[in-house]
Amino acid sequence: MEFFEPRINADAAGFWEGCREHTLRFQRCRCCGHVRWPAAYLCPECLSSDTEMTQLPPEGVLYSYVVMHKPFHPSVADKVPYVVATVDLQDGVRILTNLVDCDPATLRCGDKVRIDFVDSETYSRPVARKKGEPV
Amino acid sequence: MEDLKNKIAIVGVGYTPQGKLPGRTAISFHTEAIRNALADAGIEKGDVDAMFLYRHFEALAGDYDVTAFTVAEQLGFRPSVIGQETYCTRGWLYNSVGLLRSGLCRYVVISYGDNARSGRRSFVKELSGGKATDDLAAFGDLSTMSKYAMQARRAMDTYGTGPEVWKEISIAQRQWACLNPQAAMYGKPLDDEAYYASAMVAEPLRLLDATPSSDGGRAIVLTTVERAKALGHPYAVIRGFGSANQPVSPFRLQVEDPESAAKLASRQAFRMAGITCRDVDACELYDCFTYTVEATLRDYGFFPREQVKEFLTRQRLGPGGELPVNTSGGMLSEGYFMGLTPVAEAVMQLTGRCGQRQLGVLPGTKEPEIIVCSDNGAVFQSHITLVLERGA
Question: Residue B392 pLDDT > 80, yes or no?
Answer without folding.
Answer: no
